[in-house]
Amino acid sequence: MDSFNKSYLPQKFLTVAVENLRLRAFIGFQPWEREKLQDVIISFSFKYDGALASAEDNVKHAVNYKPLTKQIIKLVDRQHFDLVEAMAEAIYESILHFHPEIQDIEVCLEKPHALRFADNVLIRISQKDRYNYAVISLGSNIDPEQNFPKALNRLKDIGIIVHRTDFVKTKPLKFEDQPDFLNGAVLLLTSLNHTTLQLKLKQIEAILGRVRSENKNAPREIDLDILTFNNHILDKTELEELPFLKDFVAHLRPDLV
């Protein structure tokens, strides 16, 4: 099959689910008390854009659930946790950090016979109940003094701006025959998943007058890009090519650079 360019493929989100992973762990006891091992049952699911993986029938384009499952087994099996809540949180974080395209995570942790008159106790974690952290870059060289405040107001409609960088003037680097840019970035707390956030940013760009052309580096009213989402840098190459973007990430998420 000929190689596909993902940018030309319509998104095809699919759900991957692993159900009833049966492990044993020490919960609320010291790990050397072997007789206190308790059964736990773990189920988890997530979504990702499987268009390219399906088109090319190639695991390198998929979010591979096998190493993720092995990672969770290593995290939980015969390990010690004081609370099942802490175990569920560790599983959630492990999935969240596994791959940048994972979204809509659901985790269910069961502890059978934890109560005398109940079959089990369940802990559920849903990414839909949590906020995501995104570093959003802003760039403009067409009326930037007017378009930056407009863009910031629009961003406030889709999340909470918890921190921002200084706004700085930069020379155009890839297409030099155009005015200087005003650039900056914000740390946005949002309930939107990565895909929906991307679509909302494109919508804001269109509302503020950006018209896309064949020249991707042409002057623009506003340019809004996701630099990081949760604990993932989305395009490390771009950060190396545009050092001021790396400085923005270092300022807003120093733990990632």
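^ that was protein a. below is b, sequence first then the tokens
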Amino acid sequence: MKISYRNYPILEKLHKGSLGIMPVFEQDKVFFDLSHESFIRNWKFYCENFQQEINVISKPFHEASEKAEEKLFQLYEDIVVNDTSDFDVKGCYLCGDFVYMIDYEVKKGSEDNEVAFYIFDKKGIPLAMLIDSSKYRVCQNIWISSCFFDSIGKDPTAIRGWIYSHFVKIIIFRMFKNYAEVETKIIPPNSKVKDVGGKYVNDTKLNLTYLDSKWFTNLVKSDGFTVSGHFRLQPKKKDGEWTRELIWINEFEKTGYIAPARKIAYNKNHELKEK
């Protein structure tokens, strides 16, 4: 895995804190002829928070977080809707061909939300934007590239749903990173990191966090196989306070030799305690 300014030009713009000369799709030029300056000005206002952490999402991490989405969203709603704690997500997420930048903050006891959410492709072409700020009196300023109209149409409800589906995806990534034990590799600027999973190269001037998950990686021999399990939010005491940890409960395993993923082996102990 290699991340550089060559294959992710948008990261150089993020590092410099300037979108500079921004490439746009031909069909979006009408919008940017009118809104180019405000788009760049608003992005730059939130740029410092976009720089807080740069997360590279691996395919296994993405797949594992999707399987845990229902439980994690329940926990998110418990925090935000029931007003149990502050909640925030700030940073940049590289996921396939999409680059997400987010500054989202909810304060306990306050009805005000602060949301700045941008989607670019690797080259820095803008794809979507959502700004909803009580503090700055911006109420759901939404834009999406015309290149998506063929697939989702022009209906405002469909456009809003598309943007929010991607917004929720980043919320789930953040929740999975915080509430589950995941493989995290910190790759300093201009460095290479090697481990059993391969070589990771960071040719940028930014700190990168590579997020991986081996929860569902099992070596299966003979006729054995693992039947699908389920996620659970397990109560856990941390630093003297009760919180919840996302764990994987294995349902059962067929006869055969299996070298299990770490989480499956870990949760066998929990199953024995529950019986």
